[in-house]
Amino acid sequence: MDSIPEILLVDKPKGITSFDVIRRLRRRYSEANNGNKSPKIGHAGTLDPLATGLMILGIGSGTKKLAELVKLDKEYIAEILIGESRTTGDMEGDVVKEKKVVEAVEILRSKISTILPTMLGEISLPVSAYSAIKVDGVAMYKIARRAEKKGEVVSDVPERLMRVDEVELMSVSANAGRAVATVRFRVGSGTYIRSLGEELGRRLGYPATLQNLRRTKVGDFDIENAKQIEEVFK
Q1: Catalytic positions, please?
Q2: pTM, whole model, 2 decimals?
């Protein structure tokens, strides 16, 4: 087995939590080292279960560097579904609003191309009720899930100042009254892409939600240099 790096780049697959990534790596280390306990592993920023892409992991003494790495700006490729909004801001939640997209793709692309540059810079937006941001010391997603069990919806969510440094419209498609805009965002730390997707919809005059999300860069770290979980600790 190769020597253990202090900083490891991993391409997180869809459908597992960020802690699942760490759990799997600990197991892989133990299997590759005759059952020995894995060194401490931490990460510099979570990804939602439905998101994929770059995670920076600190291993052993590398965990001491994570506090600085988490502050780095990030790049994402976001697929934004236009025509419906959901409780969670992504496809995991229940539909709360729907509106048929009536514009032709060319017109919609022109509108989005005009709107996106207006979102550059600092922007104050409501965070998802299912985000990890804390209110009175309690994570919002815990509050939202408690309300969900009671058949309620959390509508009083905090706003957060976010920063968009770069934005690029990559493609627009439409089908059956829905549209999907694929957008590259370069953002400051603490910016919620779900919030940006919903804001794009508001400015278009449609409900919107995040359909897919992939993190491609963190600072100068690039997804091209990341390993699949199965490739680590061989």
Answers
A1: 48
A2: 0.90
